[in-house]
Amino acid sequence: MVKAKDLLITFINNRWLVFIAAMWIQSCAGIGYLFGSISPVIKSSLNYNQKQVARLGVAKDLGDSVGFLAGSMSEILPLWALLLVGAIQNFVGYGWVWLVVTGKAPVLPLWVMCLLIFIGTNGETYFNTAALVSCVQNFPKSRGPVVGILKGFAGLSGAILTQIYALINSPDKASLIFMVAVGPSMVVIALMFIVRPVGGHRQLRSSDASNFSIIYCVCLILAAYLMGVMLVEDLIDLNQTIVKIFTAILFVLVVVPIGIPIYLTFTSDRRTPEQEALLSEPQHKEPETSHDPNEIIFSEVEEEKPHDVDLLPASERQKRIAQLQSKLAQAAAEGAVRIKRTRGPHRGEDFDLTQALIKADFWLLFCTLLLGSGSGLTVIDNLGQMSESLGYDNTHIFVSMISIWNFLGRVGGGYVSEIVVRYKSYYMVQIGRVGRVV
């Protein structure tokens, strides 16, 4: 009984379980990508013209993009509370839209409908913030794959929710709005206590690379499967039994990654003392006598380590840096060396808003997103009307296809960025050293 309890605790505190739960939340969090399927229903039910629908699309885009409030609240609220706020916003916003569209609530002015769309879609920013904050902290050395996979599943959620809607097979097209209001909220509430930081920096494993490879394979299989299913359902009139089988296989593919934390729970290995020394948690500040180990890691270690350390194999390099860190910490405690106090965090560390606003990196990312995402959002918002104008009755197939390719682009971006950061930068360091030797 005691062993079973220990295994359960290990499983609950496994950072891979948090990552898988975050993937599940993100797989139903890309609500904005379904606007192309929802907007024709709203347009026909409320007798809106295309200009009014475009205003609803702008409200949706604002709700999807304005994540300042979610980011600020993540500093003062636990992540489960952040997820709960997002679930409530999603349910209230799209739930009220569903009531208006189905005639169960009085018709509201256009600006109120825009406000409801904004509130409902803004709940997605809380899902994204909680998932990314927790997983980036749990996987500080694998931020590229983590962000790429999580944001990829947010893009894929349009195809997943569309397939679930095909399972419902409701003649009332407004039921898609009801599913958007209820489905993501239920999933988030069920998982909100699992998604949290669990000290991932103390759980580095040699199996991380293979685990990410497994998840990448699942991602590719899932995207290919959804693409095939959507094309078959569009070309062939399938009976409901076949659709149920297709949806069941989809759920199996989404759930398969849970095998990773289960396997790690039963095969967990002990870390070496060098790893424990390197990965120890920061100590609390004490007046004058103690020093933050993170400052030693990011400043003194980089200056004091020999140049040939980076040429060593990964395990030996980690061991040498751990030994150097231990010596520096002991010397700092004895007063033999003085730790330099740096102003603000280094690149790659956590920034608050005021620290980020004075960094060029922040403004470069801000301008890139501001100028680069508009064309894609315009297509997504008007995809339903574009497909109807071309004579297609089933607009869901186009929403699903753009969702799938969006997913592949995001996952691929995370994978490529990790290669560039981890390997390309290493090669550039080696080229620089060779140049100095020559």
TrEMBL record:
State its location(s). Answer: Membrane
Report domain Nodulin-like positions.
15-262
Composition bias type Basic and acidic residues, residue spans: 282-294
Keywords from UniProt, A to Z, are:
Membrane, Transmembrane, Transmembrane helix
Q: Outline the segment boundaries, as ranges, of region: Disordered.
A: 275-294
Where does the source fall among the domains of life? Eukaryota
Q: How does it sit in the membrane?
A: Multi-pass membrane protein
Principal localisation:
membrane
Please give the GO cellular component terms listed in this UniProt entry: membrane
Q: Where are the transmembrane segments?
A: 16-36, 79-101, 107-127, 148-168, 174-194, 214-233, 245-266, 362-380, 395-416
Any idea where the NFD4 C-terminal domain is?
Answer: 356-411
In which family does this protein belong, per the annotation? Belongs to the major facilitator superfamily. Phosphate:H(+) symporter (TC 2.A.1.9) family.
Supply the name of the protein. Answer: Major facilitator superfamily protein
Say which species the protein is native to.
Answer: Artemisia annua
